[in-house]
Design brief:
Layout: H1 2-13, H2 15-22, E1 34-39, E2 42-48, E3 67-71, H3 72-77, H4 84-87, E4 93-96, E5 106-109, E6 121-125, E7 128-129, E8 131-132, E9 141-142, E10 152-159, E11 173-179, E12 186-192, E13 196-205, E14 212-223, E15 232-245, E16 248-262, E17 267-268, H5 269-274, E18 288-302, E19 307-325, E20 330-352, E21 355-378, E22 381-382, E23 387-407, E24 410-427, E25 439-456, E26 461-472, E27 489-501, E28 507-524, E29 530-548, E30 557-569, E31 577-578, E32 585-598, E33 603-614, E34 630-641, E35 647-655, H6 660-663, E36 666-669, E37 672-675, E38 681-690
Parallel strand pairs: 6-11
Antiparallel strand pairs: 1-2, 3-10, 4-5, 6-7, 8-9, 10-11, 12-13, 12-38, 13-14, 14-15, 15-16, 16-18, 17-37, 18-19, 19-20, 20-21, 21-22, 21-23, 23-24, 24-25, 25-26, 26-27, 27-28, 28-29, 29-30, 30-31, 30-32, 32-33, 33-34, 34-35, 35-38, 36-37
């Protein structure tokens, strides 16, 4: 309890200087959420600045909801060895590494489980939905391994279901990644513990101000892994072209990604703690995964900020065979799917009755074709097929949002979204007799209204509140065969809070409380055992803050966040039990500290550190078993030369004190307590060298 209170106080104290500043700053940030400053002839992209909730704007931070926005400066400061490290420091986000090679991480927000591959958060990259409904691993499986951190322009996190632009899977929230349109030529070389080696080459094409620009990226990495059979090798190629058209900007991005990895799987925690089983052991040395993904994305956005169309078109192919031994012998599951679709949206900022007004409306369509096959294997040698299921899912959607500011201090927001899901599931003759050779066809709809309001207390501090509905689609592979009458799982969410953002980007603060209830919630543990939770409730609070101690953009900055959630089962009585596998609280404190600035800023040395406390998780519904709270420390020492744009030399590391290396991924399955041990510490050093091409934002 002492450590819990200590972190809560530390995180909350980050906000206090900022709220004092809020009383004296009187300017609102512009709708453009990114500020730049010029150093000589090099334009440097600084911190992102959240748009005020009192501003009529299409920016998510202007909505009456808990939203966090970070940009390239944040990404450059993080100790990043995988995409999960980009999200760990953010408020209310918990990341769990399964130690399964190229398998997607467990990412959790707002009390949703950390053991199901981020299934209850809607993910987008350049507007393309990443969740895979009815995947063998999890319904909503989100594989972000093809993401390349060095090309990300910004990350936007909307906690809760308020976003009208997200449909299925957006229960805990929505996380969107946008990639850069222009990048300079550079070479990055990296090496670290456990055989880590990586080379990243970027070739930039086009001059500053040119109407057409492009870049090509090749990312190759190898790792031996902390645990036996933990090797991982990937090759990632991406190309993006951006063209300025007479009335807008269009981009085309294509990518091919391949990964081969081992899989150490889960060990008995009791045996590891007793020393009878090495924490680096693997269950089966022939387990592993192979991922092959190809995608193509087209984006267009009009130039007029007050009236424009935006369009996203995409197609993606994902092939994922996974050999795994869960204790009853090895098998291979192959999930292969192709999906494509698009989104067309019109946004207009105008006045209605003399009051600023935003109107945004759009339609989207997604078509999925997936195939699931299963074979028993021994050392990857296949036996007779035991499963074949094929699924098609078509999802047309329509949505609209209105923002209306009748008073200077009051802004109202109303939105609605309607999704229709058309399922067709065909089961082959290899399956269990009760569903073999059957076809199940059904369609279900979800109407989700969202309303909210924001009220200005001071020129910088606003009060906001919202109500929103969300939904979870049906698991077509696992639930629909033989049960065509299944409906959607529904979520109702209420939220209220305060936000504080000044125009300079020196201050950001957010305090929010929420209450949500979901019907028909189902959890599947990492070994495939299903638990029907039924009706569930989550109540929680979240606080985050960042404050720059000096007026200069390069000044020292302190930051922190804290979140608490109580996830309950409501099947029979108000206190029936607990939702398992979700940390009850998260707390982070950290600082960004400039250590050296010489020759008028030509040479710079900076240190970024954060210390994160992850709270205990209930392992059973009765609450009699739980993990311990644990810490995770991360830091990066970064040297740059602004006279040589893009040059970076860095050392970074992470460390788990105490039992944290076991607690991050511990769960109860079939009465056995299992864990996926993490390394106590990892270290990486890297060098980024600008080579040629045009100067661009860094």
């Amino acid at each position: 309890m002492k450590i819990y209170c200590k972190w809560a106080a530390a995180a909350t104290s980050v906000l206090l200087p900022g709220f004092a500043l809020a009383q004296t700053s009187g300017q609102r940030p512009p709708a453009d959420s990114t500020k730049t400053q010029r150093l000589g002839t090099v334009e440097v992209r600084g911190e992102t600045v959240s748009t005020s909730k009192m501003t009529v704007s299409a920016e998510a931070t202007a909505s009456p909801a808990a939203v966090t926005l970070v940009g390239r400066a944040y990404i450059a400061r993080q100790a990043v060895t995988s995409y999960g490290d980009l999200l760990r420091p953010l408020a209310g986000v918990s990341v769990s590494n399964f130690q399964l090679g190229g398998v997607a991480y467990g990412i959790q927000m707002r009390g949703y489980v950390a053991t199901e591959h981020a299934r209850d958060i809607a993910f987008f990259i350049d507007g393309v939905p990443q969740n895979q409904g009815s995947n063998l691993q999890a319904n909503g499986y989100a594989d972000l391994n093809p993401l390349i951190p060095e090309i990300i322009r910004r990350i936007e996190v909307v906690r809760g279901p308020f976003s009208a632009f997200s449909g299925d899977h957006a229960l805990g929230g929505t996380i969107s990644f946008d990639t850069e349109d222009r990048l300079p030529t550079s070479l990055t070389l990296e090496g670290g513990t456990y055989g880590t080696a990586r080379a990243l080459g970027i070739v930039g094409l086009g001059k500053p101000g040119s109407k057409v620009a492009a870049y090509v990226v090749l990312d190759a990495a190898h790792g031996d892994g902390y645990r036996d059979n933990g090797r991982d090798n990937h090759l990632n190629g991406l190309a993006k072209v951006t063209a300025a058209l007479p009335h807008g900007t269009a981009t085309l991005r294509v990518q091919a990604y391949g990964d081969n990895s081992g899989s150490a799987s889960y060990l008995s925690r009791a045996a590891v703690e007793a020393g009878t089983l090495s924490r680096r052991a693997a269950v089966d040395l022939t387990d592993g995964n192979q991922t092959r993904q190809q995608n193509a994305v087209f984006n267009y956005k009009g130039n007029n900020p007050n009236s424009y169309f935006s369009t996203t078109l995409y197609v993606l192919h994902h092939n994922f065979p996974r050999f795994r031994n869960g204790g009853g012998g090895q098998r291979v599951d192959r999930d292969e799917r192709t999906y494509g679709g698009g989104d067309v949206r019109y946004t207009r900022i105008t006045t209605l009755g003399g009051a600023p007004t935003l109107l945004a409306a759009g339609v989207s369509y997604r078509a999925d074709a997936a195939s699931d096959s299963r074979f028993p294997t021994v050392g990857r040698v296949r036996g007779p097929q035991t499963r074949q299921r094929d699924l098609t899912l078509n999802t047309p959607s329509a949505y609209a949002q209105v923002q209306y500011q009748p008073l200077v201090r009051l802004k109202l927001t109303a939105a609605a979204r309607y999704d229709r899901l058309y399922y067709d599931v065909r089961v082959g003759s290899f399956d269990v007799a009760s569903v073999a050779n059957t076809t199940t066809t059904t369609n279900v709809g979800a109407f989700n209204p969202k309303v909210g309001a924001a009220f200005s207390i001071t020129p910088v501090v606003s009060l906001f509140a919202n109500y929103a509905r969300g939904f979870k689609g049906i698991d077509g592979y696992g639930d629909l065969p033989g049960n065509a009458s299944l409906g959607l799982s529904r979520l109702n969410s209420y939220e209220a809070g305060f936000s504080a953002d000044d125009a300079t980007g020196r201050l950001h603060g957010l305090l929010t409380a929420y209450h949500s209830e979901q019907t028909g919630e189902v959890q599947v543990d990492p070994l495939g055992n299903l638990t029907n939770f039924g009706h569930t409730r989550r109540q929680g609070v979240e606080v985050e803050g960042r404050y720059r101690l000096a007026e200069t953009s390069a000044g020292p900055t302190v930051f922190g966040n804290y979140s608490y959630v109580q996830p309950k089962l409501l099947n029979e009585a108000p206190d029936d039990g607990y939702v398992t596998n979700t940390p009850r609280y998260l707390a982070t404190v950290g600082l960004d500290l400039p250590l050296l600035a010489r020759s008028a800023g030509v040479s710079r040395l900076a240190l970024s550190l954060y210390d994160q406390l992850i709270g205990p998780k209930y392992l059973d519904q009765a609450g009699t078993m739980q993990t311990s709270a644990y810490q995770r420390l991360a830091g990066k020492l970064l040297y740059t030369r602004t006279s040589w744009a893009g040059f970076r030399l860095y050392v970074q590391g992470t460390f788990y004190p105490g039992t944290g290396a076991l607690d991050e991924m511990t769960f109860l399955s079939g009465g056995s307590l299992l864990t996926a041990p993490q390394p106590k510490g990892t270290f990486t050093a890297g060098l980024k060298i600008p080579i040629s091409g045009f100067n661009s934002t860094q």
